[in-house]
Write a structure and sequence with these properties.
- The complex is a heterodimer.
- By secondary structure, chain A is of the alpha/beta class.
- Chain A has a domain of 70 residues.
- Helices cover 27% and strands 25% of the residues of chain A.
- Chain A has a 6-stranded mixed beta sheet, sandwiched between helices. Chain A has a 4-stranded antiparallel beta sheet with strand order 2-1-4-5, with helices on one face.
- The radius of gyration of chain A is 18 Å and the shape is globular.
- The N terminus of chain A is likely disordered.
- By secondary structure, chain B is mainly α.
- Chain B contains 8 helices and no strands.
- The model of chain B has no long low-confidence stretch (mean pLDDT 91).
- Classes of the chains: A alpha/beta, B mainly alpha.
- At the A-B interface, helix 2 and helix 3 of A face helix 1 and helix 4 of B.
């Protein structure tokens, strides 16, 4: 897909957002702003609220309290522009097993109302090196290939905000390295990326900003280079904490 | 314009998925035939009795066959969270609903045609004389039932006992549809003057339209987490 300048100067923002599942608070009074060209690594233990945060930004989860904004538009009241600007990769692939990868991408592209769809599909398939497997039913693909197809689906409409929840899951070493390099390049192309991974070193090699979470709270939000890793009990494998 | 494209895209996707595995429609037809056979076997009827029982047999069969279809329709969406995948797109949730409803309508209509053909043979009953009215009644009855079934299928898909929950949730709401459809079908098959069953047909049409419109408007809230 050709590099494109950011189509928006608008930010994606959570304002005092809380999310409860019954009594359990997944997010508590969270304030978080993703500006265009941001590169944010969301890190934290299981149950920290990373997935809920990303789902909230992707407009898939409703806040119990607070609001999600795209620019000054409430993402849940008026989601059309926001959704066009967001690409999301989740634990689930969003792919129909009975359809081929190409058919899945065509389906998604039509929902997004994309022009020159076949060209875009080929470019997205090429980007994740799955073009040669695009005409096989998704059910017959390995987990790693399905993940790459899911990434192609998320990049298909050339979104300005890429939200990726554990995007390296199931990928082999070469694919993981290619994705790492791609994510690292996105801010230069005018795109913002927010992602989570349990591999701190991998995440730190991509992002400039760290959002450390625990039990629904933000423990740190700032430049990765100056993050107090020891205080956050983060131990990178590649160097002393 | 985009709205119509979305409806068509979702409809075409469901038809394509069904064409690939051919599971749901085959299951619906076989189940429908089994039910008609069971009714025919247990209710050995004369021609006059058939006129009384056939509308009930047909609509009860359509109701159970429909349940299978609605459950399967959202089983495909649950796998890999595909319904959420659709919600990521900047589309009106009502358009997604209409696309899925039209696909469910098509599958149930095909199963109904098979069931009616076989029922006419087993009951030794010709639908030809009342075919026009019967098709009209079946159209609105199926439309109303599918409208309710599609939205409750989406609701039940997020529950733990979804296969059980769907009929429990859906049948009480669909009662007016079945009453109208059974009474109107009975009148049409007996060869009554249209004026005699017109009120039932009007009831059926009114409920079908109300259910389609309400479901279209409410589908957005069904999809919310």
């Amino acid at each position: 897909m050709p590099p494109a300048a950011s189509r928006t100067d608008r930010a994606l923002e959570l304002r005092d957002v809380s999310k409860y599942f019954g009594e359990f608070a997944a997010l508590r009074k969270l304030r978080f702003r993703v500006a265009p060209r941001d590169s944010v690594f969301v890190y934290g233990p299981n149950g920290a609220g990373k997935t809920t945060l990303l789902r909230m930004l992707a407009s898939l989860a409703l806040p119990t309290e607070g609001h999600v904004f795209f620019g000054e538009q409430d993402l849940h009241q008026d989601p059309t522009e926001g959704k066009s600007a967001i690409g999301f990769v989740s634990h689930a692939t969003f792919l129909y097993g009975d359809l081929t990868g190409r058919e899945n991408l065509r389906f998604a592209g039509r929902l997004f109302g994309l022009r020159e769809l076949e060209k875009r599909i080929d470019a997205a398939l090429e980007m994740f090196a799955v073009r040669d497997r695009a005409d096989q039913p998704v059910r017959d693909l390995s987990r790693g290939l399905q993940q790459r197809m899911s990434l192609a689906r998320a990049f298909l409409h050339d979104p300005d905000f890429l939200l990726l929840d554990e995007p390296f899951t199931g990928l082999d070493t070469v694919s993981a390295e290619n994705l790492r390099a791609l994510l690292a390049r996105l801010p230069e192309q005018g795109k913002a990326v927010v992602f989570s991974t349990h591999d701190f070193d991998q995440g730190a090699s991509i992002a400039r900003r760290l959002l450390a979470m625990e039990k629904g709270f933000v423990r740190y939000d700032g430049p990765l280079a100056s993050a107090p890793l020891e205080q956050l009990r983060i131990k990178p494998k590649g160097g002393p904490a | 314009m985009h709205q119509a494209t979305v409806v068509w895209t979702v409809f075409a996707k469901d038809v394509r998925v069904e064409w690939r595995n051919r599971e749901t429609l085959a299951l619906m037809c076989v189940f429908g035939l089994l039910l008609v056979f069971l009714f025919n076997f247990t209710l050995e009827t004369t021609h006059e009795e058939a006129l009384r029982t056939l509308p009930v047999v047909l609509w009860v069969t359509f109701a159970f066959v429909g349940i299978l279809g609605f459950n399967r329709s959202f089983a495909a969406e649950r796998e890999n969270s595909c319904l959420e995948g659709m919600m990521l797109a900047p589309v009106d949730p009502g358009a997604i609903y209409l696309g899925k409803m039209l696909a469910n309508f098509l599958f149930l209509a095909v199963a109904e045609v098979v069931v009616v053909i076989v029922a006419s043979v087993w009951y030794n009953f010709s639908f030809v004389a009342a075919l026009g009215w019967f098709v009209l009644i079946a159209f609105f009855g199926t439309l109303g039932y599918v409208a309710v079934g599609t939205i409750f299928g989406a609701i039940a898909a997020n529950t733990r006992m979804r296969e059980v929950m769907l009929p429990v949730l859906q049948f009480p709401v669909a009662v007016p549809i079945f009453i109208g459809a059974i009474e109107a079908t009975g009148g049409a098959l007996r060869g009554d003057a249209p004026g005699q069953f017109a009120n039932w047909l009007k009831l059926l049409v009114a409920f079908s339209i109300v259910f389609v419109v309400l479901s279209y408007l409410l589908f957005e809230y069904v999809l919310e987490e």
